[in-house]
Amino acid sequence: MQMTRERLEGYQKVIKEIKILRLELDDMITTDSGLGHSVIFDYRDGFPRPQAVVGFDGERYDRKRRQLDKKEAEAAGVREWIEEIEDAVVRQVFKLYYIDGCGWTEVAKRMGYRGNPDYPRLYIRDRYFKMNNIK
Hints:
single chain; 135 residues; mainly alpha; 6 helices; 2 strands; elongated
């Protein structure tokens, strides 16, 4: 998987979408929100009469399930890519910023660069991006 800044920056959004999709799927199964209706034609009288048919909307459920699987795979790919970073300091900066969602001030504080919140961003993350041609 080719990693980009865009994919890393979008990780938190993907995690939020996963939570929402899980809630929607659970809601579809446990409540009436999973019900859908369709119109069929009844020909018993010799001419078509529209009739409503109500039932579980399996197509919508499957579509949401596929979206959830895709988002979970994307999130897992980002986490695996970060775990494969060899340098422990760089890996920790990436975990704190992208996975935990900490701001740069918090990352600097946790990494011991309290006086300079730009150090982890400029000298650790950006240098790693430049060395590995990540755009």
